[in-house]
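Usage

Read records sequentially. Each one opens with the input sequence:
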Amino acid sequence: MKPSVKFLKVKVFLFSFIFLLITALIVFIIIQNNKFEIIYIPISEFYESLNIEDIMKLNNNDVSFDYYRRIDGNSQREGLIREIKGMFTTNIILTPEDAVRSLTSVRDIMGIGSFSYTYNDGNVNHIHLNMFYLQQMYENIEVLNGQFQVYATNEGVPHRILGTYVNVGNLNTSPTVSSWKARRTFESIKYEGRLKAKLVIYEVGEDDIRLCWHFENFHRMILVDAHSGDLLLERKLNWV
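and closes with the structure output:
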């Protein structure tokens, strides 16, 4: 006995509904996995501030430091440490929260002035080391070039830290130029694919911090000043 047309329509509807439901669930999972959680460490939780002598004792002098120099382009960072190869805190590092908290131990010698960061859920796991990639945030806005990599053993023993802190100061984070208007800055140029927009904070130079509209796709990255509308940076991306 052949199924009726009505039965077939109901069957097709059910299959379509289930397919859409599964698709929506997959999209939801992808979005959740790519969300960034902001970790903030208040001053009340600062437990130590180590100097170079403290770190050398912690490592029995088996430690190396890399310093900023004037040639690096920002005199405010001259003399600060940008990398420590060795233990740099007395506490274990097993979670992203531990990694952000470890920055407080070296805040003076690395010039770190705030402790609001995000981390990527897809941390790189080495055979014997875990790496936590931390992104500096200011009022929930990403600070370009404000990043740290914190390494620890699988047991949580601090192993290495490197990165740069950007001193944002007091910055107006309410854009006066809309993303739509910012696009008009470069609308005469042809780009491959749609450029996604978001607000970021960008260090143009010493004592020159800007709120910017960040446009990017797989081919190109553009920064437009979110207050003046000036084109600040245009860079072609080479993905391997």
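Summary fields computed downstream for this record:
- The domain at 179-236 is CATH 3.10.450 (Nuclear Transport Factor 2; Chain: A,).
- Residues 135 and 147 are 5 Å apart (CA to CA).
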